[in-house]
Amino acid sequence: MSILVDKNTRLLVQGFTGSQATLHSEQSIEYGTNIVGGVTPGKGGQTHLGVPVFNSVHEAVEAVQPNASIIFVPAQFCKDSILEAADAGIKLIICITEGVPTLDMLIVKKRVDELGITLIGPNCPGIITPGEAKLGIMPGSIHLQGSVGIISRSGTLTYEAVQQTSDLGLGQSTCVGIGGDPIPGTSFIDVLKMMELDDQTKAIVMVGEIGGTAEEEAAEYIKDNISKPVISYIAGQTAPAGKRMGHAGAIIAGGKGTAADKIKKLKECGVHIAENLLQIGAKTKEVLG
Amino acid sequence: MNLHEYQGKELFAKFGLPVSKNKVITSADDVVNACRDIGGNKWVVKAQVHAGGRGKAGGVKLVSSPEEGIEFANHWLGKRLITYQTDSNGQLVNSILVEECTDIAKELYLSAVVDRGSQRIVFIGSSEGGVNIEEVAENTPEKIIYEPIDPLTGPMGFQSRKISKVLGLDGEQSKQFAKMLPQLTDLFVTHDLSLLEINPLVITQGGKLHCLDAKINIDSNAIYRQPEIQAMHDPSQEDPRESEAALNDLSYVSLDGNIGCMVNGAGLAMGTMDTIKYFGGSPANFLDVGGTATQERVSKAFKLILADPEVKVVLVNIFGGIVRCDLIAEGILAAIEEVGVSIPVVVRLEGNNSDIGSNILAESSAEIVSLNSLEDAAKKTVELSK
Asked: In this predicted complex, what is the ipTM?
């Protein structure tokens, strides 16, 4: 098994003909992902990367029946694109774009929740189920089909965790980048729930960072609901207060959201801590025995 | 992005909120006119910097003659104000707000933030104002109300009444607050705020609610659609290297160590800083060079890092995902030559074609240490920084 995406995923790409979407769609197709079409308003009727381009998500849904959509449009259009996919009935939406205004996300999040849609991101690398489907911008080559589920707020840190678990032969079940924004579509807890139910996942790596209290909330949830071992690394132990560390969500505000607080809480709730990012793989291997 | 108090009050006034009559001055010569235009015989003069704690640091004063105001302006303009919220260099004072004096009966607290937990704009109110709200939350949580606003309905009358009760407002003040709450929400949404804080919100001797301070932060992601706010940007309040980085679309935060860091990805950049610290070193900066790490971006990043005279060694940590590491290696070499880097550079390349990339670096004439493992690279960097 795996979660969210597999060989049966039929992917639509929004903002399909742009340069980033083109580059990453090529890579996804090469990885074996079934991209059934793309949307670029005004370019409907063309063929791009061997699949049809549509003017709207609704037209694409009627013609090629996608069951997931990935969004590469510029930040100012993401609210519209996500809500368009939602309105067209797509139940899994991944938004890669960075820089979406927070107040746009407040509205979007409320709407997708009402409709029972899973939104991953924005500002995220996407999802991959190794050997089955890659919906995102992660390098496919570092992944190995296996037993570790990875959830992360950061792209390149996810790649570190992936590389380390691949090098040690553990491999990954599914990797979900939930993104570095203050209001993510999907939380750590949402993904933890799915991974708990997934037979292929034997251990869960949760890569967090400073800012907010998502890791603390996840820790509480893990304590009561997750039977599988969880290994966590928190980035930003040396970050100063009050400064935004790249990601919009990575800021220690009013003394809240420090790495030390998060690590303390995770430990209290029985989560295994990788003290350093170099130890994520080794710690996972140790815990799995 | 942050605003000055006077800019926040301009926005307050635009949305109909009660603020004091005021004038902003940038020269001591303008104090007399400002006092005359405002009227009265007492004024409050406030140094304008992007930091709280100004009062305790001497940056706010009650004056009873224009001459005293001139003295205050001469003392502060062009100087740096150091408060508990600034670093040891303080913030440059290049404007002063002159305000009519308000007779205060009671100080309250009111703010609004985007709350990640409830995923709503949340108003926070307290009967204890003019003090550090974190302490109130810690010691007397019953004196604070958190009221989330549904984006569909906006603030409702019953919510205004709930907050009024905790603030301890009388009937007339509650009516006044019922007008203010939608105005504040409108301001928050219209201008894409991430924080709005009025500390203190006061009740005057005349029994009216009045905004005595204004702290506003804007969501950086939304600046593109806020031209009026963009025009209020004051680069003098930011670290010059951070401003330069922002202009070049790089994410940079200045720190006080001596190891320059250049990393792709914000999470990995933090993780790299942590790793340096773990092996006993001290990072000079956070720098996310972005996913693509082209020669142009790497050059700009080197320039930024080297502008800090404390930097003794640079650690470049790139996880080549989609981008090939051999291309990144060539970009790094070209950037080093272009910028004229004269201190040691340790490079760790991982991912796509990393072996070829590392060979290119190893065979170059530049003073580069190329290591494949982050552990080795971090240890070597720390050793070179001592």
From this structure: 0.89
